[in-house]
User: Fold these one by one.
Assistant:
Number 1:
Amino acid sequence: MKTSGIAMLSTLFLLIQLATSDPSKEAFVECLKNQASKSPKPISKAIFTAESPAFVPTLFAYFRNSRFNTTTKRNPTAIITAMDETHVQATVICTKNHSLLLRIRSGGHDSEGLSYVSNEPFIILDMFNLRSIDINIEAGTAWVQAGATLGELYYSISQKSKVHAFPGGVCTSVATGGHFIGAGYGNLLRKYGLSVDNIIDAKIVDVNGKILDRKSMGEDVFWAIRGGGASFCVILSWNLKLVLVPEVVTFFRVDKAHEEGAIDIAYKWQEVADELPEDIFVRLQFHHWGEPVNKFTVRFIA
Ligand SMILES: Cc1cc2nc3c(=O)[nH]c(=O)nc-3n(C[C@H](O)[C@H](O)[C@H](O)COP(=O)(O)OP(=O)(O)OC[C@H]3O[C@@H](n4cnc5c(N)ncnc54)[C@H](O)[C@@H]3O)c2cc1C
C-alpha cells in the first residue's frame, strides 16, 4: 500500500512538473548562459521568467501605455534586462537560434506598444540598465547608451556646461534608444534640425550578434538607423555632436480659449512661425480643458 501511495505521489509530482516546465524556455535560457559565459556580469541576474518574483514589476516598469494592459495580453516568455553589451549579443543570437520574436525596449514610450506587446511568443530585451552618459565638453561630443532618457541626457550636459545642449524631444522620460531611431524633434528644431542630424556615430548589435560602429556597419546602415525605425539592429549607444546655446533663454507661455481669439492666433501662427529668426521657436499646442474642447496654449521660446 505504502509503495503504491509513494508511486502515485511521484506520478502526480511528475505531471505537475511536465505541466509547468517549458523545454523551449529552458533551452533558450541555457543558450543565454552559454553565449554569455565570458561576460563580466553574470547573465543569470538579468533573466526574468514568469517564475521570478520580479517578473511582473520588471515587465511593468517601462510599460508606459496602459491601453495595452488588458487581461488578454500575452506575457513575454522572458525579459532580459541586459547589464552588459555581451548580454545584448547573447539575446540576439539565442532568440534567432530558437526562432523567437525579439522586442527591444529602451524607454517604453512606443505608441503601439511595439517594445513590449506581441500576439506571438516573444522575448523582451530591456535596455534600462544600459544608461551611461559620457560627455566630452572639449570635443563638444557625448556617448549615450540606449537606456538613458532624454531628461538624463539634458541634465548631464547641463552639469558640464551652461552653453551646450542637444536637440531632442521635449518628453524627458523618452529614452534615446527608441527616440533617435525615429529622428527626434524638439525645441531646438529650427536652429539645429533633428536629433539625427547631430548624431555622428553609433554602436549597434547586428542580427549575427556582432558589435559594429559607423565604420564597420557602413554608411547605408548608419543612415537607416537614424530615422528608419527599429528593425535593423539593437542600438547600444549613440555618439552625439553637442550644439551651442545661449546661457540664458527666454520662455513664456500664453493660454487662450476660443472666445479669447484662439483661432486667430492659430491662423497667424501658421503664417509667421517659419518666417521668424531661427533663434525663436514658437510652438502651438491644443489642450482639452473641460467641455467643450476650446482651449489651447501657445508657447514661445526665444
Ligand atoms: C509622452 C510622449 C512624448 C513624446 N515627445 C516627443 C517629442 O517631443 N519629440 C519626438 O520626436 N518624439 C516624441 N515622442 C515619441 C518618442 O520619441 C517615440 O515614441 C520613441 O520611439 C520612444 O522611444 P522609447 O525608447 O522611449 O520607447 P520604446 O517603446 O522603448 O521604443 C520605441 C521603438 O523603438 C524600438 N527600440 C527601443 N530601443 C531600441 C534599441 N536600443 N535598439 C533598437 N530598437 C529600439 C522599440 O522596439 C520600439 O519599436 C513622445 C512620445 C511620448 C509617449
Number 2:
Amino acid sequence: MTDPFDQHLSRDNTSSVKFDARHGVFGREDVIPVWIADMDFAAPEAVTRALSERAAHPAYGYTLFPDSLYQSIIDWFRERHGWDIQRDWILMAPGVVPSLHAACMAYAAPGEGVIVQPPVYPPFFSSVRLSGRFVIENPLVCDAAGHYRMDLAHLEACAAHPDAKLLMLCSPHNPVGRIWSEQELEAVLDIARRHDLVIISDEIHCDLTFADKPRHRMLATLARPSDALVTAIAPSKSFNIPGLGLSALVIPDKLRRDAIKEVFDSLHLPQCNPFSTAGFEAGYRSGAPWLDDLMVYVQKNRDFVVETVNARLPGIQTQAPEGTYLMWLDCRNLGLDDAALKRFFVEDAHVGMNPGISFGEQGSGFMRLNIGCPRAVLAEVLTRIESALLASRGINHQ
Ligand SMILES: Cc1ncc(COP(=O)(O)O)c(C=O)c1O
C-alpha cells in the first residue's frame, strides 16, 4: 500500500502563497516551491470533516471562542506535553506573528530593546523594528559539524543591557531545527529572571518532533509561577492548517495577560471566525494519529535529504534537524554570495527555497528547504540541484 503522504495533492490555483505567488517571489513559474512553512499534504480528515460540517450550516455570523476550544488546548498540552494549563491563562490570538508584535508593544516601550537569536524566522526582526523597538542580537553559535547552540554568556551580556526588556525565544528553532535542551532552557529562564526580562516563547513547532531525537520540552514546564513567561502556541503547523489563522497565548500572570489583551483590543483583534475555531479544535481533539504518521514520514524525508545532499551535492552540507519540517542547507562551500546563491537555485536549478540571508546575516550562504512534501518532490528537487551543480562545472548529467 502506498503511503498517503506520498500522494500528490495539487495546490495550484488554490490561492496558495507557496504555489500561486511563485512568479512574484521567484520571478518564474517553473520553480518547485519548497519555501514557506506549510506542507503539501491534505490536513487530517477530522479537520476537513469539522470544516465541512461547519460550512454546511449556512449562518456564518460573529463567532465566540467556545469553551470546548479552550478545553481542546488544555487536553492537548496535558496529554502531549505534560503541561497543565489553566483556562484563564489562555488568550486567543489571530496568529503567532501578530502575537510577537503585540508582545513588543506590551512589554517594551518604543526605543527599548528585544533580544532575538539569529539566524531566526524573519518576523522576529520585523515585529521588533516595525513596532519601533530595537533588536538586540544574541547569535546562535554553529560548530564545524553544523550543530547550533546558544551563546549563553553573550545572552547574559545582552540581558544586562539597560534597555533590554523582552526575549523572543524560538523553540523548536526555525530555521536551525534545534530542540533546546533542558539545561539550555533552564539557563535562559535563569538569565531572564535575574535581568527582569519577559520571555515570549514561540513554540508553534512544538509538535513537530522526531522519535530518534530529544523530546521537546515546553519552557513553561520548567518555569516558576513568578516567571515572566508568555507561550505562543498553535495547531497550525502540527495539522497543516496555518491558513485558518488562529493561535493562542498562554500567560499565567494576569497583568501581563491584560497588557497583551489591551493591544489586541485596541485593534479589535482577535476576531474569531467559525472555520478557524472548528479546524483548530478538530486538530487538537482528533489529529494525533495523523500527526504521528506525518512525523514518521517527515523523518524519512529528513534522512533521505541528509543522505542525498551529503553524498551527491558537493559544496552543500546539511544535518538532520531535531524538530520541524525545515532543513538548513549550508551552501557556503559553493563560494557564491547571497544574490548569486539565490540566482543559482532559482535560475539554474529551478528550485524555490528561502534564502538563509532572510533569517539574518548569520544565515548568509545558507538556504532553507521545506521537506513537508511527498518524497518524490524532494527527489526531483535534489536531482535538479545536482544537475545544476554539474552543469556549473561543465558536466552534463544524464
Ligand atoms: C517560528 C514561527 N513562528 C510563527 C510562524 C507563523 O505563525 P502564524 O502563522 O500563526 O502567524 C511561523 C511560520 O512559519 C514560524 O516558523
